[in-house]
Design brief:
Chain lengths: ~350, ~290
Amino acid sequence: MPFKDSGQGLRTASSGFREFKSRMSNKQTPFVMLAVAVVVILIGPFLPPGLRSLVIEIMILCIFAMGYDILLGFTDQCSLGQSIFFGTGAYGVVLAISYLNANLWLALIIAVIASIVLAFLTGLIAVRLSEAYFVIITAIFFSIFYLLSLSMSWLTGGDDGISITVPSLSLGFTELSLYNPLVNYYFAFFFLIISYLILTRVVGSPLGKVFISIRENSERTKFLGYNVFRYKLIAFILAGLFAGLSGALYAIRLRYGSADFFSFDWSVLPIVWVLIGGTGTLIGPCIGVVIMSLFQYYVSAWWAQYLIIVGVLIIVILRVSPKGIVGYIRSRKGKVKEKG
Amino acid sequence: MPSIDVSTLLFLLSDGLLWGFTIALVALGLSLIFGVMGIVNMAHGDIYMVGAVLALYVLEWTGNFWLSIIIVPVVIGLLCVPTERFVLRPFEGRPAVTMIATVGIAYIIQQVVLATFGGMHEKMPNPWPVVINLFDVGYSGYRVLIAVISVVIIIGLWFFLYKTSYGILIRASIQDKEMANAMGINSNKIAMATFALGGALAAIGGVLAAPVTQVFYLMGADVILLCFIIVIVGGLGSLKGTLIAALMFCTLQGGMSIILTPVEAKVAIFVIMILVLLFRPRGMFAK
């Protein structure tokens, strides 16, 4: 298994004190998260416009990255076709608004349902295949969808895309315009928090435990009577759902959708995020998003061929620390604990 | 819609079949690399692209296209050796990881070509402007020629793999790597040679295809898609399956172009692949 998290071993080999310490550090995590959330909420109005828009983008992409972590980090399925769901989510919103005149919530629901259905259908075919076939077939899926989105320009607008007028956000008691960047900021933040809560919930639930057992030893999980295919499919759909949600929010932020949402970059970036930050950690991928977005934002301005660095980065991460930054920190902590 | 008559159909089918031999070269390289090393080579299409770009440069510098058929594969093969040794060696045998790593390589290759060669579509002059009468339609002689060259290379490859002692070592590594190791075969050397061979095959494909397609830094994307479909349907690592699937799919694609647009033909092939996978999840000729 390629993406093992050796941190698991630490938890099972427990001496009483270490267990206590790790439980304490687990208890700290919600407080750290809460602190980060409060900072993000408070800092919103004071950010300069350029940086604020970057933060909005980062928050939206974090949803994508965390969803992908369920797939790659928790069930060890490396999909190269995630842009399908990102693009589907984006077009779900764009088409629902421009053709159906849907309001914002309906458009979002349509987008998410569309990506769930698509993830279910592609997952049915892809997930039952073995590892090498799975990665190749997801790549093929991606290519076909990208080709279709480019050629069906009567529906998708092709490379030029379709622009939309984003309807205002109705909260029941008041109407807010998403053209106000601050509203957009809290809108994205709301979905980030919801996604994070749902995903931590999933990971902590029995379902998440089954995911981990599939990653660690899918043969044995099968012997224990679990339907491995079904659980892998659930993970695939979850990842597709959050990719779709993220794509939808991204399209709302840019107020347009184009075939570019299906492009290869959106399939590779999730892998890079998750690998940089650390597989199977949920928070790690978000750190990956922050690093990559800052990197893209600043480096692409002065060097057009910055993708070379991305390529080198991918190879270096795989070589140096397959568990990413968070995995690295955890393993360092583990070492220190063992010494002490 | 063009009128459907038998000679047009035969013409399109044979056009597809002839093109299939060149695609088979590229796909065989991909299949060989997977079979021996467990590497899903996402950069294969880009090696093909580099082959085409280098062919243009060779033509520019020497004025002779035919030289590039010899020079380019050798250059690419030599470049592949250090790539395998220093970049891919630690990941071998883990398909998902190699796939990500080769995506990294693909990015590097694409951007380097974009920076040096540029982002425009270049058309190469036809090096053998002869017209052949094929089912009452004038047909480019060069396309027949590249099919013949491809067949010669495939036969050479078959001879190498099945009749020479080194080829036996490669096939032994495909069948059972650990056993091959236990028998004293230096699998590292085999892997290095295989990666160079696979890269060279893709490069030859690129060189041969350069005059009939447009040379462009993203031209590998189309070919890698078709090759992956072929390799999946043929069965990963099965050379016979790859060859048969390549010829079959290209002929089909040619035949379908009579009623379908190129994109629709690609989608149709994709649907066929899914149908095959539903019944044979490991391809038609998997071990």
